[in-house]
Design brief:
heterodimer, A: about 425 residues, mainly beta, four-stranded antiparallel sheet, 4 helices, disordered N terminus, B: about 200 residues, alpha+beta, GMP Synthetase, Chain A, domain 3, WD repeat (chain A), WD40_PAC1 (chain A)
Amino acid sequence: MAPPPSSVVEQLQLEPLPEFTPDLYTRAWSSVPHPTLPLIATSHATAVTVFSLTTFTKHSSVSGGHERSVRSATWKPALPAAAGQQLCLVTASFDGKAGLWRYKEEPSEHLATEITTSSDEDGEEWEFTVALEGHENEVKCASFSPSGNFLATCSRDKSVWIWEDVGASEGDDDWETTAILNEHDGDVKAVAWCPDTPGRNSNSRGRYSADVLASASYDNTVRIWREDVDGEWVCVAVLEGHEGTVWGLEWEDNDKKRGGEQRFPRLLTYSADATIRIWTLQEEQEEQQDEGMKGAVGTFVPNVMRRGLKEDWICTSVLPKIHTRDIYSASWSRQSGMVASTGSDGVVVVYGETEGDGWKVLATVEYAHGPYEINHVTWCKRFDKKESTEGEEEEEMLVTTGDDGIVRPWKIKRISGTT
Amino acid sequence: MEKAALDNADPTILSVSQLPSRRQKNGAARHGPASKYDHLISPRQSGPWDLSSSVSSWSSDEDEGDEDLAIEPLDEQEIYDLISPISDPEHPHTLGQLSVVNLPDIHITPSRGNTLNTVLVELTPTVNHCSLATVIGLAVRVRLEKALPPNFRIDVRMKEGSHAQDDQVNKQLGDKERVAAALENDQLTRVLNKMMETCA
């Protein structure tokens, strides 16, 4: 059952569900859900703990490969079903390496529906198969392209590296550096590939391949990267507007096409300046139609130049300002289109889109992890719900990850009418 | 250490009796800050501010959390007492004696309603190109993070006009990820531990 569009929802209530066990007792940085399976990977200290989203208990431990903290982890997408639904994770660590891990347990036929807690206690369930080395210092984030063919990593060394899978088969982990992008003036905090949507693919315009990468930096900017016809990765846009470190970014990946249009996915960015911005690509056909008006609107880059090299991205929304300190994380629901954010102020906020690129606040929870800072928030599908709740609760939940080492799921209830 | 190697070979040094202390206010002698804040050093273990155990109850009564957090309010003098005994990494004196830390440059914004307490400490490095400003700032931030309860947010900055690279140093000190990574650097933690030895 599809939830109503967020513009209809007046208000939401967030209620904490039982937190994941065991408690990690140390700062946890992020929790990343598996794209399809009921698993979520939480990075803390030099390890990753994988929790089951069905039971909220530990599934397995990814440890023994990094000498310093693991900042984030990402799941390899699009693994062939023939390989028995194997699990593959990439970790980004302060030790300057990205690590590729594979789950060693025999694939279970029931894996897709029921994840049982592994009996293995010593963290040997995962094999550290490849260390991707090259960054000079802390690797902060890694991201797979939608096909899984490219991996991007970023670091305090101001660079983004793109690695290409050159292995002969899925199990053959052989990665080559295909590009090193050095245009940021500060730490690159996060990288994210645009999802494979119809809107993305109708826009490649023959000059670039379909994959699009975005990077967020300590230099307050976001950059968009594409691969040109010569196989060179080039920066096609610099998104300027944030007044502090851009902590991260997330692409729109909403199954419901807005108004039936196949628009290029928008980009959400969040910053130390306590704001969340949404950026929209000015698509070419619109540009041609509006050509006569462009001068009047006051764009500062001549059309000729933009056509040749650059894409024109403009900030089309700034979400209502609730946060008072750094926003460390924001997540854009693939299912409902709602956005959730959190950060140093320990507040979790949910926003819904209204008509004409407007956004309103649907829910706010203060002290969501007591007095502690919250480092991450993500939407994920609910697998714990057994019975139907007659549409009062969202099919998705939020998961927050804090300095207190707690990973907390939240169920979301719709409140009808205004209060 | 050779004098010539120092960024500031001849800093002004205040004697201990010139430093601001509680005695000027109420005459009570102060013991070392460490003894007073011992119970705060490991905030995760227990304490009235740890709300994580009371999640189920606080969702029904949001005000409860604020009352739990409202333990004995800290004042600027107590913050000063925590950080002024930190040693300078170059000189055999404390940050208080070198006037790097000054009582009027400590600002506490107490919790109002649902906001957290914030402590802003503005530092005055001994010379305006002091290359160790970041290390000093980091020591102050780490000292306060360890000593204060988790409902305090700590901002450490260079006092305006006091340092050639204000913005760069301030941004670095405010970046949680960079601070976390720095504290995993053994060489740097050795320097910080040395600076903190005089805090015990």
